[in-house]
Amino acid sequence: MSLSTPQVRKGRKYDQVLEGARAVFLADGFEGASVDEIARVAAVSKATLYSYFPDKRVLFMEVATAECARQAKEALDHIDMDAAPRKVLYETAYHFLRFITSTFGLQVFRMCVAESDRFPAIGQSFYNSGPVMMQSEMAEYFEAAEARGVLKVDDYMLAADQFGELCKADIWPRLIFGVSKSVTEAEITRVVEGAVDMFMARYGTELEGESR
Fold first, then answer.
1. Mean pLDDT of 77-102
2. Whole-model pTM?
3. Which pLDDT score is estimated for 2?
4. How confident is the model over 104-114, as pLDDT tens digits?
5. Distances (CA, A) of 154 to 11, 138, 163, 196, 200
6. What is the pLDDT of residue 155?
């Protein structure tokens, strides 16, 4: 069994194919998306599509990596990192949880788990574009918040990991193991509020209370 990563070729129509695939995968999911439909939406031939991506699985993972980066950038662009910690953490947690509990987010996770043994670089690419990016951005925020006196954090990277795990409480395991098929806004709000309350109970300061 080869552990090499299927090769993706970059070229003139790479972005065009990727954007078409993104639209179809977000609408139909991995199983529901057909290569014919992706080629149609991307306005390319199937031969052109396959010249860039060897199969649908690899194309899906390329879209997933790009989508994770896009989601992270969108969150950062819309969250005021100078606001009170509770507001920053709430908005970050809400955005994060909405993405990972979406049909697309769940499919990305399952595909990574399924393919990472055969193609380790696929799992590494997703890890770098998703969890690592969130960890580094949150660690940077915690450092800045501590400098302002509104948080007290000893280990920024550990705190970032802890916050991410708090955001998954209850909802994530139920979805991953198929106990629940979907989650409601009320359930997301409940978990997000609980995550923020617990995190602030551990890392909040008196100055944070004054900044609300």
1. 92
2. 0.79
3. 42
4. 888 878 877 87
5. 46, 14, 14, 18, 14
6. 97
